[in-house]
Predict the 3D structure of the following.
Amino acid sequence: MYRFKVTTVQDLLARLSTFASPPTPSAELRAALGVSPATLSRLVTAAGVEVARLGRTRAVAYARTRAVEGLGRRVPIFRVAADGTPNRTGELILLWERSTWLEEVGAPGGWFAGLPPQVADAVPQGYLGHGFARRHPDLRLPPRLGDWSDDDRLRAIALRGEDVVGNVIVGSESLSRFAGWEPSPDDPADYPSLARRSASDERSSSAGGERPKFGAFRAGRHVLVKFAAPEDSPVARRWRDLLWCEALALRTIAASGHARAVEAALHDVEGWRFLETVRFDRVGTRGRLPVLSLEALANEYLGDRESWTRAAEALLRGAAPYSLPAPEAARLRWLDAFGQLIGNTDRHFGNVAFLVMDGCTLHVAPAYDMLPMVLAPSAELLVDRAFVPLPPTGDNLAEWKDAAPWAARYWREVAAAPRLDAAVRRLGDEARGDLDRLGRTVMPGTWERACADVTPRPPSASG
């Protein structure tokens, strides 16, 4: 019946050593090796921790495992509830050639060629991630984030991941650190000193984004604080103006009612400007909420990165195991349209996220990093860039009609803000005029009335 008889563990391991391949179903593995079920069971038992039995009943499959320094072959996964209670919800099994298997309570196990999306989102990134290796020299990580392997990323969050994005905690050591972790309260008066040491601040979280920022805990809430230095240079003044513009954009989104935005506050302290935004993945002092970025979802399930609008349609059709309800897809399309119409040229997939409800339903998280990046300096130079508001397409016509009047009001507020640099106000006035002309073309007879119905409030600064 069988072509040959395999009696050694080495033969089994060799068969399971295919480069980053999914686990091999039991029947397929028996056929490939030419062994009986009893012989396969004996070989798997003899292989011990080097072979993992994955799945259940008829879906059982096998994969070769690997060990990562300081972690072993299986890493526990915990989730922190909104009340701050951590619960073990599964484990991450480390497989051959840096692939992984995520087994969580109440969900079918899943194979990933790299790190699962919810784990990948927790990895240090952006401005706050650049100093991670320096802050934790005992982990012996490459100094540059771009040089990290998936194993480096996993070690970072499994050994020092007590304060990462979302509600996932990877590894027993990070759980122990979370159990003993208590945020210390901050005040805006402390922000200049926090900004100066933000690159090496132990309290920095893994929240992404390349603009300078630090994490803080103020008035019982976790916040991220972007900052612009007090230097009297054109570039420094422009970044201070852009923080003002970002605060206005977030408040405009919130006022529109068409999408949600993070709560934002401006603070001017000792010549610095700080934009403080409340973290949407935190509840009180220790509670957390599950979050997935569009970046992580696209990496695993979508592939297409053309636009948020295209991603909304793809998610609406389903990205197993996640689903995006139609109203949430409309919110994402609205944010995409509004962002384009206010000159936000940085609408990449890391700049939008979802709150995960009931384990698999995606809800667009409050908007963040929404500002006219068309005005952003390039390195240490101010650059004149053309801003052209785009007309609607067949994919976003309804959302465009709602977003455009709010964008027009946004530009009016920018143009009328006396505290902004004259060049910024001038672009605001030009953009308002361009958008008004486009709006009258797209919405003849209704544009002026639509613009009259929007009433956002400009941000105010304290300090």
Observations:
- The first strand starts at residue 24 and ends at 25.
